[in-house]
Amino acid sequence: MSPTFIHTYVSVDCVVFGFDHENRLNILLAQRYLEDMPTEKQKKLPGSLIFSDEDVDDAAERVLHELTGIKKMVLKQFKCFADPNRSSNKHDIQWMDKEYKENIDRIITVAYLSLCKIDHKINSSKYDTVDWCPIDKVPSLPFDHNQIIRESLVEIRKWIESDFSIIFELLPKKFTIRQLYQLYNAVSERNIDIKNFHKKISSFNYIIPLDEIETNVAHRAARYYKFDAKIYKKNNNKLIK
């Protein structure tokens, strides 16, 4: 039995996480446009076919820069998605024909995970509409983008397990212990007791207390802290156990 080879394209798709002022984990979604579909059903993960002279890592960096306007972002390749039916939906085929004007039989995508502070200004050069979406409010997306998001959540937990400093990429430069606690719980789904969390955090000399507290808050004002990457690297401390 002879194999059947297909005309295959390679793309990159990026899952960009952010942590908002309501202490929710979010992802960045872009807008695609199809005439016969309502606008609210056209959100997607940002992505692109790779250029003929482009490495996949370079393509992912390009996609992120086109999406956000930010030149340097934490970026991690985590999986290849190659199901033969991942681009078989008629609306997805219609969009690909419009976007790329190529006869594409199949797309294999390399998925990337990235982290972005939500207070960064998003200045997209490619998409007219880019929105943060809470992870528990993600709608039905095209292709296999919902599956990619689910697997990216598993990946970010592994990432933080191996390098706890990654979590500070999602926090503002100055943060409260409650913000750190809520983000850690949102990502890890561990639901650690906050008193034990405070006790553990106080033993980490790379989390530095500042002479500044919250203002204009309804609850008891909390002290701000900052993360010192140099001390962290020297200690090589990892995750809260």
How would you describe what is shown here?
- With 241 residues, the protein is an alpha+beta fold.
- The protein has helices spanning 56-68, 90-100, 145-162, 177-188, 194-201, 229-235, and strands at 8-19, 25-31, 43-44, 47-49, 74-81, 106-115, 130-134, 207-213, 223-227.
- Helices cover 29% and strands 24% of the residues.
- β1 and β2 (25-31) form a beta hairpin.
- The longest helix is centred in the middle third of the chain and has 18 residues, at 145-162.
- The model is unreliable at 237-241 (pLDDT under 50).
Index terms:
about 240 residues, alpha+beta, two-stranded antiparallel sheet, disordered C terminus
Largest sheet data? 7 strands, mixed
Based on helices, strands and strand pairing, what is the structural class? alpha+beta
Helical residues, percent: 25-40%
The poorly predicted ranges are 237-241
Global morphology: elongated
User: Beta-strand percentage?
Assistant: 15-25%
Tally of helical segments: 6
Mean pLDDT: 86
What is the rounded Rg? 20 Å
The overall strand count is 9
Q: What distance separates the N and C termini? A: 53 Å
Order of helices and strands: EEEEHEHEEHHHEEH
What is the structure about, briefly put?
The protein contains six helices and nine strands. The protein is α+β, with helices and mostly antiparallel strands and 241 residues long. Strand 1 (8-19) and strand 2 (25-31) form a beta hairpin.
Strand and helix layout:
Elements: E1 8-19, E2 25-31, E3 43-44, E4 47-49, H1 56-68, E5 74-81, H2 90-100, E6 106-115, E7 130-134, H3 145-162, H4 177-188, H5 194-201, E8 207-213, E9 223-227, H6 229-235
Parallel strand pairs: 1-6
Antiparallel strand pairs: 1-2, 1-4, 2-3, 2-7, 5-6, 8-9
